[in-house]
Amino acid sequence: MLPRLLRPHRSIRPHTTAAAAVMTKRITRSLHSQTVNPLYKEKEEESNQGRANEIIEAVLYGSKKIKEIENQTHSKMLARGKYVHELQIHSVKPEKVHEYKELVSKHLPEIANDPLNNVHLCGSWSVEIGRQDSFVHIWEYKGYPGHKQTLERLENDADYSDFMKQLGPLLISRENNIMLEFDFWQTSPPKVTNGIFELRKYSLKPGRLLEWEMYWRKRLECRRQFCEPVGAWFTQLGELNTVYHMWTYP
User: What's the gap between Cα 103 and its chain centre?
Assistant: First the structure.
């Protein structure tokens, strides 16, 4: 039986006339003394246009290089870097819930327990409050190489192909996110419990993850008095700028 999951929801000095006249003559002589190759001129114009487009894009949307550096820095500062987690959410047809439970209860443990796969199943939960008839699965891979290796292997696995064929007709929709766990909050190992779990989701403003984590982390200890932390993750692929964390209540 799947455990239950709660989801709340500068200035320029002007030239004198004489200086300006001298400058004009110099520029004129310079222009007339040079012969410009048309092909070179065309390439130069294209290069200038490309630089102009880059400048405009940087002004409107921010520098791509700086954004990449910021994202890498945040990931290195916040994440443990050992594992990659995948959050899967399945929305099941109401009349197919029982059939879905039987199917995933059989096949998901087989995938997780296969020693050739670099993946572990952190847990599976059914949603009681929030999106009804939905189920949440969290997988733990041995880094991105483990994620890639596992997917490639499953694509060539006959049993997995059969499982996916049976799964498709039972679903309304499915979604997933690739996440990293926060370095101060290690994901708990799988365990069977009849308690209630709470999965919280936060959608952050872009570029505010590090700031948010600093404030949020200070307040986590207060909750430990009443419930046990299961895990906390921030998205890397999928719905970006999103944080999930889970607690379990006795």
Answer: 28
Closest CA to 188 of 233, 128, 234: 233
**Number of neighbours of residue 118 by Cβ within 10 angstroms:** 19
For the whole model, what pTM was predicted?
A: 0.69
- Which string of DSSP letters, residue by residue, matches 120-159? EEEEEEEEEESSTTEEEEEEEESHHHHHHHHHHHHHT-HH
The set of residues, in sequence order, having a beta carbon less than 8 Å from that of 247 and lying 6+ positions away, is 197, 198, 200, 223, 227, 228, 229, 230
Enumerate the β-bridge partners of residue 4: 126, 196
Cβ atoms of 214 and 160 within 8 Å: the answer is: no
CA distances (Å), origin 71, targets 18, 19, 183, 197: 54, 51, 16, 30
Encoding tokens for residue 45? 């114009």
| pLDDT one-digit tens code per residue, 116-175 | 999 999 999 999 999 999 999 999 999 999 999 999 999 999 999 999 999 999 999 999
Residue closest to 133 by CA, chosen among 168, 172, 177, 169: 172
Q: Which of 169, 86, 84, 88 is nearest to 125 (CA)?
A: 88
Q: What does the pLDDT look like over 28-66, one tens digit per residue?
A: 444 344 454 555 555 555 555 656 565 555 555 455 554
Domains of the chain, each with CATH number or no CATH: 81-249 (3.30.70.100)
The size of the chain, in residues, is 250
Tell me the CA end-to-end span of the chain in Å, nearest whole number.
17
Smallest CA-to-CA distance from 105 within 187, 191, 163 is with: 163
